Amino acid sequence: MKTNSGREYCLIVEGAYLSQSEAEHALRDPFIEEWVEETGRFRIHNLNEMEIVPGVVLGALGVEMLDEELFEIASTDPERPLTEHKARGVAEALRRHDMFDEITVEPRGAHDADAQDTDEQA
Q1: Where along the chain do its domains lie?
Q2: Torsion sign (Cα): 105, 88, 14, 43
Q3: What is the pLDDT of residues 25-76, one digit of tens each?
Q4: Which among 7, 8, 2, 22 has a CA at the least distance from the CA of 70?
C-alpha cells in the first residue's frame, strides 16, 4: 500500500475574484471577522495566531493565481507544509464560510502538471 506521508498538499479554489489580492481577502476576511468578534480587535501579527485547523495558522497560507478565477492556496512555511489531513481541514473551514465556488485538495504541483499535459496535447 502506498502512502502520501511527507507529500505537500494545496487547495485549488475557484471564485469570482479578478486578482490574487482579492482572493487573499476572501481567504482571510471571514477568519479576521471571527477573531474580532471573539477578541474585540485585530492587528496584523494576529494572522500568525489564528488557527484555522490544528497546526495551520492563517498567516502561513498564501494564495497564487493560476488562471482566471482559479487560485492555489498553500503553506508559505517550508517547515510546516500542508499535509493531506490539514488541507482537507482547511477546505472544510473555507466551505463553511462559502467564499469560493469550488474547493479541491490536491498534491502540490499536480495542477501545474495537469495544465502542462493539456498544453502539450493541444
Answers
A1: 9-121
A2: negative
A3: 999 999 999 999 999 999 988 999 999 999 999 999 999 999 999 999 999 9
A4: 22
